[in-house]
Input
Amino acid sequence: MDATAKFWEKVADRYAKQPVADEQSYQTKLAKTREYLTPDSTVLEFGCGTGTTAITHAPYVKHIHAIDIADNMLQYGREKAAKANVSNISFEQATIEEFQAPASSFDMVLGLSILHLLRDPQTAINKVFTLLKPGGVFVSSTVCIDERQRYLKYILPIMKLLGKAPFVQSFKVADVERLLTQAGFTIDHHWLPGKGTVVFLIAKKPL
Ligand SMILES: C[S@@+](CC[C@H](N)C(=O)[O-])C[C@H]1O[C@@H](n2cnc3c(N)ncnc32)[C@H](O)[C@@H]1O
Output
């Protein structure tokens, strides 16, 4: 198994028990995302973790395809969806890099707390652009350690060597915006919740 999958499989039980770090910001992101959803929406979420966000949005859309690299994260998602009587989410073990679907398949793609974890975020964002229908949106929430937590740039690689942290990009907010605009997106909504180390962006694929 690939080292990234191994890391996330190892932390899945702990991750599943953790409460949302900033509940108020999380609720604001959910509400803003919902403004872009309709009962006909077909959604892809990559790096869906234990499925909390997908399960929350499911009653407002047609279908959500939720993918994650870690099979045990998905197992939590499947169990939580069944408990919530949600039947319009399909969970699949896949990375965003290897995921296959025809171009223009989705009205929305969700990538929450994930872009900073990818080795090649530009390729992933380009792929998201292709997967979206014209007029579709990419909703992302991305940690930018190069804004206010620059010390993490030095600590995280050591923690990674010890198996205590995943690979993390040293993003500034402007870096994430540039990756999106380089892929062809226009930024429709920009929000810096909390202390400004996370950027929440809704990027639109032009019609
Ligand atoms: C920080 S968690 C975020 C989970 C969820 N999106 C949330 O906001 O709580 C990152 C998730 O991405 C998954 N992941 C990491 N690299 C991935 C990749 N290349 N493709 C798909 N999923 C990935 C991990 O297994 C983990 O569940």
